[in-house]
Amino acid sequence: xxxxxxxxxxxxxxxxxxxxxxxxxxxxxxxxxxxxxxxxxxxxxxxxxxxxxxxxxxxxxxxxxxxxxxxxxxxxxxxxxxxxxxxxxxxxxxxxxxxxxxxxxxxxxxxxxxxxxxxxxxxxxxxxxxxxxxxxxxxxxxxxxxxxxxxxxxxxxxxxxxxxxxxxxxxxxxxxxxxxxxxxxxxxxxxxxxxxxxxxxxxxxxxxxxxxxxxxxxxxxxxxxxxxxxxxxxxxxxxxxxxxxxxxxxxxxxxxxxxxxxxxxxxxxxxxxxxxxxxxxxxxxxxxxxxxxxxxxxxxxxxxxxxxxxxxxxxxxxxxxxxxxxxxxxxxxxxxxxxxxxxxxxxxxxxxx
Length: 353
Fold this sequence. Notes:
This protein is an alpha/beta fold.
């Protein structure tokens, strides 16, 4: 029997968490699923664990490949889709047992192309529900999708809060199910090229193809924030170049599908807001260079032509005073003050609940 849903799980060196992830998928109340787990060159026992579960449950298909990255692993998984719908799970996360049954009910009953749900961020000692800013049972169609979801994925505009934490809250792939026909020709862009936000580019294209999107306000997905934080805090060389590659790809999506002024304003604001992440990358503990070398990296960042141009139009009137100062120093290319504020931000992040 053809599966109703294909679940794609990219796996790399997560033996500590993998059993919880796989079991949460295999015990779903929706039994008519197939699970495609792609072992992305794991050097721990992740591959063996997958093989063990595949022997117990024929719905699990395991693919072993060399270590190429999460985008490449997802792309490999998508070559094997047989389900009418497709979804994704990160191998260090887990899901509630009725997640897919509840989401598929909505998708099938109302013929929805993409169904979203809420999620919970799982920290080491506590959990926190992510505020998606959407009403339960919300359904949007073509024009509304463009005006709301796609534009918000690009970035905020004047009158909206410039909160970097919310910048990509709708762009993740693992709290969504997609009609396969919508995304079967959509690929994930390699992180070697763009550094991060491969989900964002995937969803910008997928949402532009979708005729309908629904939201269910239930937090079925459990996102293990602790492990992600440790990975994201690692120093990433050439991040500025990769981030500009990402911006250019977003711009091409706008040029091709939308080409409206507010979207370019939103992209401009994304560029400005993105300097915090790029700055934190410079001051990360993994960047083993001295203070003067870091200052040179900061000055190179703040002197980037696209960033300088973006700051000429960046409106900070609605920001709190400390953020106004932060972005003022960035706009003024005051590397020393900008670097000091980055260290303060890093300290606050470390000790925030």
